Amino acid sequence: MSEGTILDRIRAIRKTLDINQSEFAKRIGLTQTSMSMIEIGKSNLTEKHIKMICTTFNVQEKWLRSGNGEMFGSPSPYEKELVDILGQLTDDTQEFLLDMARNLLKRQEKS
Questions:
Q1: Tens of pLDDT along 41-50?
Q2: Which of 16, 56, 65, 84 is the most exposed place for a label (fewest CB within 10 A)?
Q3: Do 10 and 58 fall into the same domain?
Q4: Residue 83 sits in the same domain as residue 50
Q5: Domain containing 46: what range?
Q6: Residue 74 domain flag
Q7: How far apart are CA 6 and CA 104, in angstroms?
Q8: Phi then psi for 29, rounded to 5 degrees?
Q9: DSSP assignment of 49-73, as one string?
Q10: Quick one: which of 25, 18, 49, 33 has its CA closest to 6?
Q11: Buried b / exposed e across 25-39, counting CB within 10 Å, b at 16+?
């Protein structure tokens, strides 16, 4: 079993992904203040928060809860192909595709 608490593992996720507390909170639907209160143990981490963390960041729920297993789940079956294709595109085309992906993500988050 991994050392530390679930709160330590949340900090480890942020550190591994190089995401600050504010960005992490925003991506799971919380304010930075709420996330800070959770991380210092002054607010409770809910089941909804756990599910959002796992879904949003592809974190294995078993690892988040207990520290057992791997931090991240298997990548999407499309991830390798997308990375391979992206590497073959020109810089301008990569930038265009990245802008499109960001717009799609914004639309998805509104749904």
A1: 899 999 999 9
A2: 84
A3: yes
A4: no
A5: 6-66
A6: no
A7: 32
A8: 85, 25
A9: HHHHHHHHHTB-HHHHHHS-S-SB-
A10: 49
A11: beebebeeeebeebb
Provide the strand spans (E) within the chain: none
pLDDT score recorded for residue 77: 75
Number of domains in the chain: 2
Please report, for the domain that includes residue 23, its CATH number. Answer: 1.10.260.40
pLDDT tens by residue, the chain, 111 residues: 445 899 999 999 999 999 999 999 999 999 999 999 999 989 999 999 999 999 899 999 999 999 999 999 876 778 778 877 888 889 899 899 989 988 998 898 887
Express each pLDDT in 89-100 by its tens digit.
898 998 999 899
> What is the dihedral sign for C-alpha 8, 52, 76, 80?
negative
Answer yes or no: pTM beyond 0.70: no
Indicate the angle between helix axes 6-17 and 32-39, nearest 10 degrees.
130
